[in-house]
């Protein structure tokens, strides 16, 4: 069996569900141990660093014989939950696919990047520095990537998230916002005393729907499409017979590269101000809970150009250069000045109950990454 696929099977067989998504879940400790073993077998210098208690990042370094440029490959070791899956940690190969939780998102990419280092090490690494980073918590808050960039730098990075072997130079960001409408609690039989916070939230929801339509009518970003928003979670009321004094809504706004948090919070504040001006009894507040920026690298930058050439040489195809809609750790790397692209294997079903990666794509991705390391460093 190809060593990349053997490694992929080993990684899929280890439960590494993110414990902040699913309370009590296994976390990344066991998969980090397997990753560090694989890196040590290659001859890399390996460091485990706890990015959160009991949840280590693994960073492996391969030094060339001579000085040169550095290149980082980065992937996350956590996965989303496994509810509804029959055998999430049993890697089954069928019809050229490997099934299991994390097969595509993104143990396929992690196996490919580690096995690329093996190929480089076996052939003798002439010059430069290869850094392989397996980070925790991308599926929740990217604590792993945040910790990584406090110590590690490289002249360029490839994040091996699944892209169907396309090169992505851009992705969207997101902002989570909480809105609260305030009412007045009263006995349900006394309308003169009560003020209904839930009904007032209805006005906010209608305005948000209008805002979402307006966002999606704007001319799209060439690589990632339009911004959008949706209501994610809503909560309010105490019992059937009372006027609710408060209602809270948590919403997600997907942002375009370059869109600032202030623009997004301003949109919601504008809605609340308009509703307040129209009805003096309306009272609503909002706050930004968490946000991550979008990302964009010029497609003519040396990194995507070099990866295009490397992929063409290694796997005989000229990869599509585009954008991905989902947020990734590339934005964290770029945030400290590391030019980054996404490049990873194809498959389907990420975050769903049937997830697979295309087995041959894992090897193709590995071969293209090894070729890039030779050319870049
Ligand atoms: Zn992912």
How would you describe this structure to a colleague?
This protein is α+β, with helices and mostly antiparallel strands and 377 residues long. It has two domains: 3-171 and 295-376, 3-Layer(aba) Sandwich (Aminopeptidase), CATH 3.40.630; 173-292, Alpha-Beta Plaits (2-Layer Sandwich), CATH 3.30.70.360. The protein has helices at residues 3-12, 29-42, 103-123, 143-151, 197-217, 261-278, 302-315, 330-335, 359-376, and strands at residues 45-52, 55-63, 66-76, 92-94, 97-99, 127-135, 157-159, 167-171, 173-182, 186-187, 228-236, 242-243, 246-255, 284-292, 295-296, 321-324, 340-342, 347-348, 356-358. The strands form five sheets. Strands 1-2-6-3-7-17 form a six-stranded mixed beta sheet. Strands 4-5-19-18 form a four-stranded antiparallel beta sheet. The chain is elongated and about 80 Å long. The relative contact order is 0.19. The structure holds zinc ion (ZN). Zinc ion binds next to helix 3. Zinc ion binds at residues 76, 105-106, 138, 161.
The CATH topology annotation of the largest domain reads as Aminopeptidase
Beta-strand content bin: 25-35%
CATH superfamily of the largest domain, by name, is Zn peptidases
Helix content: 25-40%
CATH architecture of the largest domain: 3-Layer(aba) Sandwich
Q: Could you give the order of strands across the largest sheet?
A: 1-2-6-3-7-17
Measured on Cα atoms, how large is the radius of gyration? 24 Å
* Small-molecule components bound: zinc ion
What spatial form do the alpha-carbon principal axes imply?
elongated
Largest sheet: 6 strands, mixed
How confident overall, as mean pLDDT?
97
Q: What structural category characterises the helix and strand content?
A: alpha+beta
Write the element-wise H/E pattern from the N-terminal end onward: HHEEEEEHEHEEEEHEEEHEEHEHEEEH
CATH class of the largest domain: Alpha Beta
Count of DSSP H/I helices: 9
Please tally the β strands and state the result.
19
Number of domains: 2
